Amino acid sequence: MEQLPHNRPLWNIHIIKYTTSNAAGNIIFKLHHSLGDGYSLMAALLSCLQRADNPSVPLTFPSLTSAQNPNLSVRGTSIYRNIPKVLRSAFNTVSDFGWSLMKSSYVEDDISLIRSGNPGVEFKPVVISTMTFSLDDIKQIKTKLRVTINDVITGIIFLGTRLYMQEGRNKLNNEHSTALVLLNTRAIREYKSVKEMHKPCAEKVWGNQFAFLDVSIPELTSLESLNPLDFVWKAQKLIQRQRNSGAIFLTARLLEWLRKFKGPEATAKYIYSTIKNSSMALSNIIGPVERMALANHPIKSLYFMMIGGPESLTIAMVSYMGKLRVAFKTEKGFIDPEKLKSSIQNAFEMMLKAAQDIA
């Protein structure tokens, strides 16, 4: 494509003054990813917003807590007891990072109902749709299973996606499908202002600081004996394995090395190839607990989406005022967004009921 002219800004703001059943109007912030990652851009957006009830009080965000694993023991910390764990972590690091390299170059997911594999997908029309879940309901599942909210959300998405891929088929067809989970490499507990992020030696600096995990979407073994909670545990196991393997650290270092020594084009090419060979991209951002306002106009809801990627399906999530807004970008004419949302809603209801049945 032609190079963008230097006098053209890398952002647009669209104000749509058209009343709908959901809101009095909409504002679209369109920002180029070269400006920064989700954390940076969310911090910039929050710098423009205030609490609707009291603008002088800062916004607050949900606390981040780790899941307690009942299988972990606090017995002695002998170095000999840690040897198997260290060796397993080293093996997983090599295995996961090697798989990530292969995924960016040679290994492609199977063609399926969520991956067309058509060339030039990024230039084709897309459909953006959303659905909303109660965080209280998700926390019920989290508490019963003693996992994280991210584990629950990922499990719901994975099960719902498999149900969508299975709909209308007489037999189980478990195509090899992976989700590219985008992760921020900062230790995020709160957002910093744009001014703070640009200070010398700032703890959280502006820019693109992210890596990704290639997580295999668990297969459906049987619709008759399906335990929906298995997808949460499988998602937890897959993500924890890669989080603890060191593959994320190596991937982040590789992206930084490519940027420094081969230029941003090489970094973009590596990310493009990895996404292109995957079935979907997943990303999430933490939003504030209180209602926000922009120039004294209360904000009813918000969501974000990454556009222009070579994947047929992208799912992005953001929390706000006790709700989780899930947005879908689907390849138009290939994925049925309403059927996909219905499948994910079914997965959520199945998991909530199964969790409530646990004594």
UniProtKB/TrEMBL annotation:
Superkingdom in the source lineage: Eukaryota
- Name a Pfam family for this protein: WS_DGAT_cat
The main location class comes to membrane
**Does the entry feature the keyword Hydrolase, yes or no?**
no
Q: Which UniProt keywords apply?
A: Acyltransferase, Endoplasmic reticulum, Transferase
Q: Which reaction does it catalyse?
A: a long chain fatty alcohol + a fatty acyl-CoA = a long-chain alcohol wax ester + CoA; an acyl-CoA + a 1,2-diacyl-sn-glycerol = a triacyl-sn-glycerol + CoA
- Span of domain O-acyltransferase WSD1-like N-terminal: 4-153
Give the InterPro entries listed for this entry: O-acyltransferase_WSD1-like, O-acyltransferase_WSD1_C, O-acyltransferase_WSD1_N
Residues forming the O-acyltransferase WSD1 C-terminal domain are 206-351
Q: Spell out the subcellular localization from the entry.
A: Cell membrane; Endoplasmic reticulum membrane
Its record classes its membrane topology as: Single-pass membrane protein
Pathway(s) the chain acts in: Glycerolipid metabolism; triacylglycerol biosynthesis; Lipid metabolism
Describe the family membership recorded for this protein in Swiss-Prot or TrEMBL.
Answer: In the N-terminal section; belongs to the long-chain O-acyltransferase family.
Name used for this protein in its record: Diacylglycerol O-acyltransferase
Q: Which organism is this entry from?
A: Gossypium arboreum (Tree cotton)
